[in-house]
């Protein structure tokens, strides 16, 4: 199943209309240099992920989620700090 996923991804990347020609050139170059094309596929997927991330970051939903996460993180830090203080105080009392 994993092999099918990898093969499908590689085929999709190689025949992608956007930048497909450049990807195929890089892939062929890597093969000629003794590679198996893994780095080309890896770098292409990283680039696609970065593009998707940039797109998502600009959405209102992402910004709301980021703000909510920041609030939860502040609360968690405060809770952890309070817990450490409480335990420290209990040990000082003994």
Report what the structure shows.
By secondary structure, the protein is mainly alpha-helical. It has two domains: 1-57; 60-94. 85% of the residues lie in helices and 0% in strands. It is built from four helices and no strands. The protein has helices at residues 2-14, 20-32, 38-57, 60-93. Helix 2 runs antiparallel to helix 3. The longest helix has 34 residues, at 60-93. The protein is elongated.
What is the average of the pLDDT values? Answer: 80
Q: What is the chain-wise order of helices and strands?
A: HHHH
What Rg is obtained from the alpha carbons, in whole angstroms?
24 Å
Strand elements, count: 0
Shape: elongated
Distance between the termini: 59 Å
| Fraction in helix | over 70%
Low-pLDDT parts are none
Estimate what percentage of residues fall within beta strands: under 5%
């Amino acid at each position: 199943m994993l092999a099918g996923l990898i093969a499908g991804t590689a085929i999709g990347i190689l025949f992608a209309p956007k930048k497909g020609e450049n990807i195929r050139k890089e892939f062929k170059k890597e093969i000629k240099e003794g590679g198996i094309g893994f780095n080309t596929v890896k770098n292409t997927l990283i680039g696609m992920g970065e593009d998707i991330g940039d797109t998502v970051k600009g959405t209102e939903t992402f910004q709301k989620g980021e703000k909510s996460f920041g609030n939860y993180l502040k609360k968690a830090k405060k809770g952890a700090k309070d817990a450490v203080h409480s335990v420290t105080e209990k040990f000082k009392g003994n």
